[in-house]
Amino acid sequence: MSANTPEEKPVITFQIITDTHVTADRNHEYNLNFELALRDIAAHGEGSSGIMHIGDVTNHGFSAEYKEMLRIINQHKADLPDITFTLGNHDVGLGIWKSRLGMYTSQTGMSGPYHDHWINGYHFIFLGTEKGLPKFCHLSSKQLDWLEHKLGEQASPDQPIFLFLHQPLKDTVAGSLESQDWYGVTQDKELKEILARYPQTLLFTGHTHWELEVDNTMYPGHGEIATMFNAASVAYLWTNEDKHKTGSQGFYVEVYRDKVLVRGRDFKTGTWIEAAQYEVAYTAVNVY
User: Fold this and answer.
1) What are the b/e assignments for 175-207, b being 16+ CB within 10 Å?
2) 95 pLDDT tier (thresholds 50, 70, 90)
3) Given this model, what pLDDT does residue 7 score?
4) What gap in Å lies between CA 130 and CA 118, rounded to an integer?
5) To the nearest whole percent, how much of the chain has pLDDT over 70?
6) For the chain, how are helix, strand and coil distributed in percent, rounded to 5?
7) How far is 119 from 137, CA to CA, in rounded Å?
8) Closest Cα to residue 122, out of 164, 86, 80?
9) Mean pLDDT throughout 131-155?
10) Is the dihedral of CA 280, 251, 53, 62 positive or negative?
11) Are 55 and 88 in contact (CB under 8 A)?
12) Long-range contacts for 270-274 (Cβ within 8 Å, ≥24 apart)?
């Protein structure tokens, strides 16, 4: 059921973007789409507590690409909330792992592959690969233990926890079927076991670029595991027909006392995507 915005004001709002794939060419379509997305958020995200970027910040992890990424952000910085970044495979999949990670942390200001933040009383947790794999994400046992500890901090079944990871879990959201070859966590089973203990979690992933109009953008947890969302892509989109599509999409999220609204946004047209309007209700952790 599509959710209508209630009269009450949300406790907190934020935006989600992913797969910006910024290049060194300021006139490249990906870069222009990133600018469009930021302009949209600057115009419509008043009062936002942050932009959550789910990875593949750059196309190759090159210094010139980060320079261009920062130029775009700084152009609109006065009108934007802070951006918190997730590590993507394109950011560290080429070259030497340590140097790529160092470039990522120095240019984004993130402390490492994984980190967490409390914003207005809500927990935001970011996971990231610890190996420079071409597609997949590798989560160490140390990171998984850290995650379980963090999920348990001040946890309550009637309050959502927001979790961000670039690669989706296998056979969950759009583009993550094993046959499609775009799922991507080496420790898929272990992560699912942890998320089954914290079903109030909302997991947002990128990587697949699948457009938000498809019917499995959301994977409902039904109180048995985290509810999961594919966040599409800012740079370009992908379809169920396994084809590239020009476009740029993301989410606006509104958090209320008893529910979370996840609203698909088309950054190209500056319109809401009617097929991608979701409501996750608490305390019973039901999805409608």
Assistant:
1) bbbeebebbbbbbbeebeebbeebbbbbbbbbb
2) confident
3) 67
4) 23
5) 95
6) 25, 25, 50
7) 26
8) 164
9) 97
10) positive
11) yes
12) 270/40, 273/212, 273/213, 273/249, 274/2
